[in-house]
Amino acid sequence: MNYSRRQILQNVSAGFGYMAFSGISGLAGAQESASTNPLTPKAAHFPAKAKRVIFCCMQGGPSHVDTFDYKPQLTKDHGKSGKYGGKLLKSPFRFDPHGESGLQISDIFSNVAKHADDLCLIRSMQCDQPVHPGAMTQMHTGTTQFVRPSLGAWTLYGLGTENDSLPGFVSLSPPSGSARNYGNAFLPAIYGGTKVGRGGRAARFAQGGSGESVPDIKNPRLSDQQQRSQLNFIQQLNREKLRRDQTNPGVEGVIESYELAFRMQDAMPELMDTSNESAATLAMYGADGGPTENFGKQCLLARRFIEAGVRFVEVTHGNWDQHVRLTDDHRARAEACDLPIAGLLQDLKQRDLLKDTLVIWGGEFGRTPAAQGADGRNHNNKGYTTWMAGGGVKGGLSYGATDEHGYEAVENPCHIHDWHATILHLMGLDHEQLTYRYAGRDFRLTDVHGDVMTDIIA
Amino acid sequence: MNRFLTSLAIFLAVSATVSADPLTAEQSKFFETKIRPVLIKECYGCHSSKAGNARGGLQLDNQRSTHVGGDSGAAIVPGDLEQSLLFNAITHEDFVMPPKRKLSDSVIDDFRKWILMGAPDPRVTEIAEIQSTITDDDIAKSKSTFWAYQNPVLPTVPGVNSADWTRTPIDHFLLSELEKAEVSPNQDAQSYKVLRRLCFDLVGLPPSPEQIDYFQTKWSADPDAAIALVVDRLLDKPQFGERWGRHWLDVARYAESTGREVNLTYPHAWRYRDYVIDSFNEDKPFDRFVQEQIAGDLLPVNDDEQWTQNLIATGFLAIGTKNVNENNGRQFAADNVDEQIDTTTRVFLGTSVACARCHDHKFDAIPQTDYYALAGIFGSTRTYFGNPPSEFGSLSDAQTKRSSSLILLPIDDPSPFDKKLSKAEMDDMREQISEMGRQIGEARRNRNNPGKSGSALTSLVRLSSQRAKLSSQLAVVDDDGNPRSYCMGVQDSDSVADARVLVRGEIDELGQVIRRGFPQVLTNDQPSIPARKSGRLELARWIGSDQNTLTARVMVNRVWQHLMGQGIVTSTENFGVTGQSPSHPELLDYLAVRFVDSGWSVKTLIREIATSRAYRISSDFDESKFNFDPDNALLWRANPRRLDAEALRDAMLAVSGELVTDRPRGSAVAKAGYMRVRDGRLSDPREQIRQVTEKMRPEIRDVLRQRIGQGRGGMRPDTESGRRPGSSTGRQRPSFRERMGRSGRSGFGNRPSLAEATAARNSITKLINQRELDAEDATYRSVYLPIVRDEVPRSLDVFDFAESTMVVGTRESSNTPNQALYMMNNAFVIQQSDAFANRLARTNGSLNDKIEQAFVLTYGRPPTRGERSATARFVGSMGRSSESKKLALLCQSLFASAEFRYLD
């Protein structure tokens, strides 16, 4: 059966060509379609533990010694000189053991702590720079300096996506000026993250019920039916051209893009509309009001996107940069995201999605054990904590360690390259094989670095 | 100067001995007991690599970086108290360290003794001698064997069997390969397609129906003459430079802001944009064009006008991405040099030298030391990218740690947005700046005051950003308030020096000094650079000439790509070992030699390619040819191409009749001035929100303020003088309350109704979601749209606009759902469809005539039979709708269709 896509399209009646074709593509035409649609699901390099990713990006550098890295010696040595100067500052928050695993977590994350036995704390993170832009860029793209494809784009490039009515990589309300963190760089544009919603001030206004936060998602003056009839006409013109040209991948791409866009117009607002979620669910995420409302909605949306088959979703929670007012502001930042993240974990679990959904939490770096001013901490890239849950990682595990005060990783250091290698591995991708040829060189997310942390894989 | 030299001599001598000889027991004891503990306790917190901190670029945890010093200069000059800035700082002369208190006299005395005894310091890091793994032999071999390093020589034009098919030597080169492969080139395309190609390729706009008719007539008589005539006419149009200038702006990574986290505008970047456009329109010899961009400031000039142009040209080196939030001045400088080396070598030479910043080039014969030979040249150059200092100095906001001035133009050439300030305005601004300075001082003092630190920091950030804005406005006028004209660019630095290799590219890991020069594999003659000169002039003259084997080849390849759809070398910025080999090496050399011989005339080159037979053949698919050569490497057909973002937008405007072809002077960014860009807008959203909310009832304002968590910051009404501190509700504005009350709301008491609150909220939401940088209402050509990094107008962004942080010689050509959404729903597309429909409505004739005309305007041809009946069905299906609505939907459909978006 060697029907080319073109022949199939020629043989179906006008108006339903694409629909008919996409029905067929699951069967005989699958191979053909894989060569034309770059987002068609692709086989992983080896069986994947995780099918999708939710990345909770904590912008600004949350302090590890005040959240997930318990340092009793820091408390004991409070007020003494730190080894790199400054006075050591004990955490103003209380740590307790949680779950059967007894992981020590600070009380500002008391809700997340309820899922301690699902968490894999990586307490030995390292990156190259203690400055925000560089470290943030490195966390997303592996490099501090250049414009390179982001983790999500690499994942989409490697695996394709499962819902053909939605983009495969979504960044929810990213902060402004962060485009490169979800960008495709030199990968084909189709692999870049689709920005949904706005960050910062605007996010606080975002209303659950509308899809307005996706640009151009709705025609201001046509009904769906009118637009479908217009689209049918456009597609007729396009197919007429394709018929004349016989083979034209560009025109085929245009035809596909209109169908996906038209489906997105329905799918996106529907996905963004959380009004059909129960009050209990909204409450579980804290999406029903109060300081957790905004991030709760983001987390809820993340679950909805993931459930709908989106491969990679990123949600951002900002303003962790407490050089001053650490006690008050760190508590407030945590309060806004603790319940939403806990709700996300719980919801994924009860929908049996956590087992193959990798949830990642982390900021671009941690903070110094020594004080800055009376109640603040500086940036620290030499040792900090991120965590993962679900998606094939061991729960209730503490991996790696910083020194007694939390200055630098001393046990099983995990550089951001190792972190990337491990995430790709969990997705079934070999970070050394996942390459893209650009400007004459094969590029990788991990450049020439990266070791998979096999110890954390269940 | 003399003293400087002496101290330099001492410095060198002492550091040499210190490095060579171990310290005496006495020196060692003195350092360990008196100096090291103080450094650790008082300095390392902010100035050591272990703490990850190098405030002011200064690290004091090893001897080498202590001697090199930070942004301000050497911290320790052994034996010289006056030159040792560390001593200056601890004695609180010009600098004040530690910041909050003075060290005891005895400690200061210890440092005095230590410096005078030659600052013996056991914390020696040896200066590394980088040994390249690339040997002289490797370089010589590469130079003598690799194709791109051989001089292009004019090849013999090959003979062909079907000589009557050919028109120019280009056709001989192509046809001889086709004949060898026994593949015949396609037939000529239909005349309207050829004309559409010519118009989009040369001026980026579609042909008008009249032009199509005219061309058809000429073509029937003599196709060669018809093409020659049209090519000449198009080359003379001012739109030519707009089209080809934009191609150049892609590789020059042109943008009007710094990018990165703190996205500061470049309000004067547009001068470089216009310079590029004018250069292409003038057909400025390309070698000259290259030289001006690298070293226009150093080239001899005849008059001030030329000097002005040359200075603007060096904007090329200044418009790159900059991380102005970088703490460390030396890191910032090193990154800037790197950006300049990378851009310069890839844009002009198609060679990536920046790979060698950290190690030898992995593939090309470019040792790490070659990078630092160039780094010496660019490191001896100052880059001007910011805003000139005002009389108050270089005041910047809290996020801007790296500032810079601009170059004052020899000839005043105000942009339409340069404002004249009255004396009263200036006085007022000066007063405000002084007052803010006072308040900033107060806030600084309160910063470490427990309980007050939070609010102090907030006001510090707000005040410093307001003060910076005023200062920047004051800075660009003369004493009488008249605007002065500035440009971005470069100048030779006062301190010219060779650079040291940096081990792994890290700024604190110094290696040997490398003489300034050019990459060895690309030249046989290293330049002789005068000691006091950067060497940029020599570099410009070498790159902008046929003294290297690459510049001409790289440029003709790009021109070929833009006309033929793919480069002879497909990796347009990589002519190195890992790049693609040329598909037609002799043709490439032919074009390169011809280009140089023509006096580097880009227009001549374009004319030669566009009048070839190969340019006009059809893009028709042919199964057997396709199976033989699927990539069309032999050019048996024309490559179908998607219109790029600018051509698509301009074509919609041209067809709708709305296009304004006059060049707008300046740009939206120039109008906004020097500022930080956020959320796609050039005005401060807090200011806008404040203006909107001021008109609301105070009760609603309060509710909204809570909603957006802005109680303290942006939404507070003006804190003008006279307001008593401690009033927590802000200024009462009874007049507003009265006005609102009059509209019948008084019955609700003070509580805002739900509808009222929602309406207020929606108006602010709209304000926030508005992206003025999308410039949806603009009708000028796309090349003049504001290009702010990470905030590119959506009309360009969705259609694979060149990523302005990178050198882009070949754009992506994707088909994404966002493009489809844009064509279906975007306000600009709808506006233009309506305008197009109005244009048709104004013509005489039946609905069918108008439909015919719509196809001719968009596709360059009347509809086919199938299209005609599909259109009839579509228009019929709209039943009772007005004719104008039917036409508007038809027009939008044509814009959205593949044929309009592609060039066959």
Descriptive overview:
The complex is a heterodimer of chains A (458) and B (904). Chain A has 458 residues and is α/β, with parallel strands linked by helices. Chain A has a single domain (38-209, 279-456), classed as Alkaline Phosphatase, subunit A. Chain A contains 14 helices and 17 strands. In chain A, strands 1, 4, 5, 6, 7, 8, 11, 12 and 15 form a nine-stranded mixed sheet that branches. Chain A has a two-stranded antiparallel ribbon with strand order 2-3. Chain A has a two-stranded antiparallel ribbon with strand order 9-10. In chain A, α11 (279-285) packs across α13 (326-350). The longest helix of chain A has 25 residues, at 326-350. The radius of gyration of chain A is 23 Å and the shape is globular. Chain A starts with a helix and ends in a 15-residue tail after the last strand. The relative contact order of chain A is 0.20. Chain B has 38 helices and ten strands. Chain B is mainly α. Chain B is globular, with a radius of gyration of 33 Å. Helix content of chain B is 49%, strand content 3%. In chain B, a hairpin with a 7-residue loop joins β7 (499-502) and β8 (510-514). In chain B, the strands form five sheets. Chain B has a two-stranded antiparallel sheet. Chains A and B meet through α6, α8, α9, α10 and β10 of A and α2, α19, α31, α33 and α36 of B.
Distinctive features:
heterodimer; A: 458 residues; alpha/beta; Alkaline Phosphatase, subunit A; nine-stranded mixed sheet; 14 helices; 17 strands; disordered N terminus; B: 904 residues; mainly alpha; two-stranded antiparallel sheet; 38 helices; globular
